[in-house]
Design a protein that fits this description.
The protein is an alpha+beta fold. The chain has three domains: 285 residues, 2-Layer Sandwich (BirA Bifunctional Protein, domain 2); 155 residues, YbaK protein (Alpha-Beta Complex); 101 residues, 3-Layer(aba) Sandwich (Rossmann fold). It contains 13 helices and 31 strands. Strands 3, 6, 7, 8, 9, 10, 11, 21 and 24 form a nine-stranded mixed sheet that branches. Strands 12, 13, 14, 15, 16, 17, 18, 19 and 20 form a nine-stranded mixed sheet that branches. α2 packs antiparallel against α5 and α11 runs parallel beside α13. It is globular. The two termini are 28 Å apart. The relative contact order is 0.14.
Length: 603
């Protein structure tokens, strides 16, 4: 490709809203342009790299036996009502109506579409397993799109869905996809950290996130130095310590009955520590949470035994419910874990009015004793004794609280936010943290969609059976941005050979006379060898051409100047050293550099 026939439009300054390197460099190099908030368009240069990421993903998935399809991006809302996600997906799902007033969805993910498409042709066990995928546009109305294509509203995702006759077959499909993912990321030149999690609460039995370490990562990872435990802070578990009293000894049961203490100016945990002269590990922190679409059966609780429920896609839930969440005073509640335990679509701290309404006390004086709404106790409160808690009325706390005696939790589960310094649940090692970005995700779904959407196949004896599913996603744009995030310097991008928009830039100091002749010859020779070359035939100062080549980040730069001819100067973007080689042998040598590097990544 010659520059004069291409569209290179680099910027000297990065836009004010670009705060991370990949966003700045993608904008400055002219790979992408912004059309609106969270809406980035790929220009010809950027699209070449995006397509390369897609190609590598496609090649590896095809090699693993997955089948590519292309469902529509706009999907009937009916499908989402069938699966039960029409109301629970939240505001990220864009739901336009067509001219006939029909509810539609701009696909944020595609479990429903794939389930419906596979359902229609599925009859026999002989057709299974099926793993189908698409590389297609997604839209999520992200509340805070940021970092360019790292978190956009419209983006490209590879999403795959497996359909298996039984759990054992699902395990095999899952392992196959996991192996393909490892090859994909290796070929892209990305080092990923594998974060495994048991997703028992969601009806599956396993998941793995593929993260890249990044200072600007949206996720915080907790890692164990002693074993390979790695978890997203949103889901991480840790060992529960024995709760200690203020002398540092295990707390002991008390026979004293509850005693009310007037505490008019005590609101926070710090206030309590001062007032009672006790450590926060002896306090029961009680918080009122508002929970959306809780699908845990609450009919056995006094408070919700007659609550109005909604049944959708075979799942019954209460659209809005309130809980008193109890945790040791020095710890914090993790809302993601809480929502997962309650099989809910979300959980948030209740507003002041609701706190008063459901606990009888304003924030700071909420307590578990006598409260009407169900109590969810964190595991950290097991073995706590002789505690201090809010009294459930303004201006008072209570002492000598005995869990089990003075209140009974509806559920005792792990909802704490784990952090650096906590102990690994597997081996007891001490966690350290890293920031990371999720590039891909694999997940055993079980029969959530096949059941609600009534998919069956006939087994060997002719009996209808519900297949089990897995789902697998890779964010293509985020992966591309992460390559840049991990491979750049002050001057620009340093592409991996497998994802560079062009392998080689040929830069004549002036596109004229002997230099033009040499440049054309090398360009023709490399192109004929299958090397992707950008020939900078622009009538620009050499300094401008060099700066652009560094910014765009072609892995190999060849400078052709009349002082050096018949030698040309070859420099790798990743190195400071340049080498003079005869024009005669340059084509061969450069092709070998490119092909060797590609072979290394593909090995
Ligand atoms: P996140 O926690 O970052 O919002 P997610 O859990 O919503 O991610 P999935 O639903 O698992 O993401 O989607 C699969 C992949 O799609 C993610 O691993 C990520 O690479 C990509 N992805 C998700 N949301 C976005 C987005 N807004 N912009 C770009 N890529 C995205
Ligand atoms: Mg998300």
């Amino acid at each position: 490709m010659k520059c004069s026939q291409f569209l290179i439009s680099t910027l000297r300054e990065s836009p004010y809203d670009a705060v991370i390197s990949s966003h700045q460099l993608m904008m400055r190099s002219g790979m992408i342009r912004k059309l609106g908030n969270g809406l980035y368009s790929y220009m010809p240069l950027g699209l070449r790299s995006l397509r390369k990421v897609e190609k590598i993903i496609r090649e590896e998935l095809d090699a693993a036996g997955l089948l590519e399809m292309k469902p529509t991006v706009i999907q009937p809302g009916e499908l989402w009502k069938e699966s039960g996600r029409w109301n629970t997906m939240g505001d990220e799902m864009l739901k336009p109506q067509n001219r006939g007033g029909q509810d539609m969805v701009v696909s944020p993910t595609a479990e429903e579409a794939f389930t419906a498409l596979i359902r229609d042709g599925l009859s026999s066990y002989k057709q299974l397993p099926i793993i189908a995928y698409q590389i297609n546009t997604k839209y999520r109305d992200e509340i805070r799109p940021r970092y360019g294509v790292m978190r956009g509203r419209e983006f490209t995702m590879m999403d795959a869905y497996s359909f298996d006759a039984d759990q054992k077959s699902l395990d095999e499909s899952y392992d196959k996809c996991a192996a393909a993912y490892r090859r994909i990321f290796k070929r892209l030149g990305l080092k990923t950290i594998s974060v495994k999690a048991d997703t028992g609460a969601m009806g599956g039995s396993g998941s793995e996130e593929f993260m890249v370490e990044s200072e600007v990562g949206d996720d915080t990872l907790l890692l164990c130095p002693e074993c390979d435990y790695a978890a997203n802070v949103e889901k991480a578990a840790c060992k529960t310590e024995v709760p200690l009293n203020s002398e540092g000894k295990p707390q002991v049961k008390t026979d004293n009955s509850i005693e009310e203490v007037a505490t008019p100016n005590v609101f926070s945990i710090e206030d309590m520590e001062k007032f009672f002269n006790e450590k926060s590990t002896t306090f029961l922190k009680a918080l009122i949470y508002k929970v959306y679409n809780c699908a845990v059966d609450l009919s056995k609780t006094e408070f919700y035994k007659n609550a109005k429920t909604v049944t959708e896609g075979g799942q019954t839930y209460i659209p809005e419910s309130y809980f008193c969440v109890l945790i040791r005073g020095d710890l914090d509640v993790n809302e993601t874990k809480l929502a997962a335990e309650l099989k809910a679509s979300g959980a948030e701290l209740a507003g002041d009015e609701d706190v008063l309404k459901y606990s009888g006390a304003p924030h700071g004086f909420v307590g578990p004793v006598g409260i009407k709404i169900p109590v969810i106790a964190d595991l950290s409160t097991v073995d706590m004794h002789d505690c201090i808690a809010g009294a459930g009325k303004e201006g008072f706390h209570i002492k000598h609280v005995e869990p089990g005696r003075d209140f009974t939790p509806f559920m005792t589960v792990d909802v704490r936010t784990c952090k650096e310094g906590d102990k690994c649940p597997v081996c007891g090692g001490t966690f350290y943290t890293k920031k990371g970005n999720e590039l891909g995700h694999i997940f055993k779904l079980g029969d959530k969609y096949t059941k609600s959407m009534h998919v069956t196949y006939l087994d060997q004896s002719g009996k209808p059976v519900t297949p089990v599913m897995g789902c697998y996603g890779i964010g293509v744009d985020r992966t591309l941005a992460s390559i840049i995030e991990g491979h750049h310097d002050d001057n620009g991008i340093i592409w991996t050979m497998s994802t560079a928009p062009f392998h080689v830039a040929v830069v004549p100091i002036k596109y004229d006379g002997a230099m033009k002749e040499a440049a054309d010859k090398l360009y023709a020779e490399l192109t004929s060898k299958g090397i992707e070359v950008l020939l900078d035939d622009r009538n620009e100062r050499p300094g401008v051409k060099f700066a652009d080549a560094d910014l765009i980040g072609y892995p190999v730069r060849v400078v052709i100047g009349d002082k050096n001819l018949p030698n040309v100067e070859v420099k790798l973007r990743s190195s400071d050293k340049a080498e003079l080689i005869p024009l005669e042998s340059a084509g061969e040598k450069i092709a070998a550099i490119v092909n060797d590097e590609l072979a290394k990544l593909n090995a």
